[in-house]
């Protein structure tokens, strides 16, 4: 980093001004895909609009489709206007889009890398991008090893002339423990762990990061955040949408690989981890890995007592009739791929011994709702008459990740009136009203961290592998048993999911 940049960033830190990354290029492989148009470029546009990117910044899209720079820009502009809620400023777009370029090429062919290398050198001299490159692999997972190898062979695993080179790998990271290990090995033949940014967009969500703020910036929660006070934890990642046009991908993935291995496991880690000594990449990720290691492995011959596999049938969501998963495009008519997963896991350590963590993730649920609910043990004794406490539930602290982002605490309160009836009410914090600033999109945060070289909110190799290891027995049992429990679209999953909790004398929350 140049001295002036260091000085500027020190001054910015002192004045708590946002840091601006060094000049550099983001190369996106798979640039004609959905993610680039819907998420990556809108996030970069917003960063540019907020002046969070250096002027010497460029985006180079690479994919097979033939397109000129101008056609690529137009495509992105159209998508930006479609997907961004606010108006797209002509001035910002004008200056931002000047730094957008496109190269058509087959990412399996060495020739494409020679051209790319030349082109990036040209950008270094014309736009002052100083040899710094971030390669974002937004391609089909099967292409990742080949791209990494080609980048390495072309010498692009190091930045040009003292610049840096970073690699972003999208999920799914492998499809089981073995493939994730292999992938890690292949990538590390060319890139050092410190250069690898495995992305999980949930870590970029403000409310997911806020789990850490809630736990470690407040003195009142940590003392009760353990098996002495917590009865159980429920983690829900519910979506009302179906699989849509992603049938082919989903048939290969299923909810376990698509959502649980990454998003849910990350939420579990942040909820269950010990306080890190500092908010830096190593300290944070070290503590997350300890949680993954402590999760009790589900016995392979007893998976049905811990895991439920569900799939949606035709049903009604928001008053509209929707097709079943098997009726969708590119889906087998006898598919047993899960669109819903419920799991019961235990974190076998001093803090959480005996506390079940119930997890569910599903598509075509009645609504979109991602939340973490910590249900506390009931009071040991209530002095009030039995009839007076019938409307009283245990205390529950709910972190609403989305929508209606916020936190609520269910407490018992006296119902106004003569007697002493006690009922449950919610103390509610809505982020939207508590803070005037609008929360940035998850990709904004993560792309900026990437350009700044901060991997704290990215996944380390051992985390990805640890999460696969936990799910291995479930995947094994499900691959042998070709059965799935059906639920009508618009319901909270199959009945077996209710049984999972009823068996323990508990029930799922209805977010
Ligand atoms: C993606 C999954 O990672 O996350 C999708 O592949 C899912 O299937 C999406 O719909 C959910 O993300 P969000 O941010 O809308 O909760």
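Q: What amino acid sequence fits the structure above?
A:
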């Amino acid at each position: 980093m140049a001295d002036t940049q260091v000085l500027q960033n020190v001054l910015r830190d002192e004045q708590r001004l946002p840091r601006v990354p060094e000049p550099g290029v983001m190369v996106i492989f798979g640039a004609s895909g959905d993610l680039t148009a819907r998420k990556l470029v809108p996030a970069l546009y917003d960063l540019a609009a907020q002046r969070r990117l250096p002027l010497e910044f460029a985006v180079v899209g690479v994919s097979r489709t033939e397109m000129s720079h101008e056609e690529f820009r137009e495509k992105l502009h159209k998508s930006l206007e479609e997907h961004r809620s606010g108006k797209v400023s002509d001035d910002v777009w004008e200056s931002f889009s000047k730094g957008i370029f496109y190269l058509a090429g087959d990412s399996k062919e060495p020739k494409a890398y020679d051209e790319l290398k030349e082109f990036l050198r040209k950008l270094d001299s014309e736009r002052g991008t100083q040899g710094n490159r971030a390669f974002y692999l937004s391609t089909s997972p099967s292409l990742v090893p080949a791209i990494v190898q080609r980048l390495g062979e072309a010498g692009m695993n190091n930045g040009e002339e003292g610049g840096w080179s970073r690699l972003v790998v999208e999920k799914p990271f492998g499809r089981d423990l073995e493939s994730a290990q292999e992938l890690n090995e292949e990538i590390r033949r060319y890139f050092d762990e410190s250069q690898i940014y495995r992305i999980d967009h949930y870590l970029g969500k403000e409310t997911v990061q806020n789990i850490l703020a809630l736990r470690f910036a407040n003195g009142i929660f940590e003392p009760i955040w353990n098996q002495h006070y917590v009865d159980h934890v429920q983690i829900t990642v519910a979506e009302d949408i179906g699989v849509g046009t992603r049938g082919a991908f989903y048939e290969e993935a299923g909810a376990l690989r698509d959502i649980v291995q990454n998003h849910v496991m990350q939420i579990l880690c942040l909820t269950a981890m010990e306080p890190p000594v500092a908010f830096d990449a190593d300290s944070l990720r070290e503590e997350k890995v300890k949680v993954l290691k402590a999760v009790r492995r589900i016995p392979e011959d007893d998976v049905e007592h811990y895991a439920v596999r569900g799939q949606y049938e035709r049903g009604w969501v928001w008053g509209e009739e929707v097709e079943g998963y098997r009726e969708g495009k590119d889906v087998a008519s006898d598919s047993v791929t899960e669109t819903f997963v419920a799991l019961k896991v235990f974190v076998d350590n001093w803090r959480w011994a005996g506390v079940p963590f119930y997890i569910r993730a599903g598509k075509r649920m009645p609504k979109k709702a991602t939340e973490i609910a910590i249900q506390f043990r009931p009071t040991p004794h209530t002095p009030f008459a039995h009839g007076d406490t019938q409307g009283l539930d245990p205390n529950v602290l709910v972190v609403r990740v989305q929508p209606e982002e916020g936190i609520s605490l269910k407490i018992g309160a006296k119902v106004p009136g003569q007697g002493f009836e006690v009922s449950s009410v919610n103390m509610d914090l809505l982020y939207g009203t508590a803070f005037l600033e609008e929360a940035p999109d998850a990709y904004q945060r993560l792309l900026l961290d990437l350009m700044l070289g901060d991997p704290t909110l990215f996944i380390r190799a051992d985390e990805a592998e640890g999460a696969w290891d936990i799910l291995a027995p479930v995947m094994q049992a499900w691959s042998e048993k070709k059965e799935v429990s059906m639920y009508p679209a618009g319901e909270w999953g199959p009945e077996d999911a209710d049984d999972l909790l009823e068996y323990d004398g508990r029930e799922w929350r209805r977010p």
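Q: And what stands out in the fold?
A: The chain has two domains: 22-170, 203-502.
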